[in-house]
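User: structure tokens for this one?
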Amino acid sequence: MGVRLRESLSGSAGRGQAGEIVGLDELLIQVGKIGEFPKIMAKELRQGNRKIAQAASRKIKPQIPRSKRVFKVRRSDGPNYDITRGTLRRSIGVKNSRGSKINVFVGPRSGGSLKNDGWFAGIVESGHVGGRNRSTGSQNFNKIVPALARLRPMMERLMIAHYRRTFDKFKL
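Assistant:
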């Protein structure tokens, strides 16, 4: 659903095509040579990644339509939930990635207050639910991933510019 900003950019998808980001390969090689980031540099890189991800989050939110009704989730083995209008939109945000000093995650966040809890995003986005209320016909079906794909070139350009400034500052 979401995307880890730095890790998604280090993949080989989209290389050699029109719209390729010039300098991405050299920058990734430079990042690989660093090894363990100094604490101050890691903090600065994460702050930059969070700013870029927050900009992407603000652009994705308006593309997700609000539901016209409250969804009632009733379970026989767990708690019952009433999912209010706009919860999926409110749940989209940025959080720090576990196990990394600089990566961030953009997409629906789960956990926290029920008002902003996007635990059901996989159901809506990918149509994981079977039965008569399948979500593939939903107005929110498959909205988040294409929006992130459209924003990826912008995020790459901003990230490369920020990394270059940071590397120049730390003389790498």
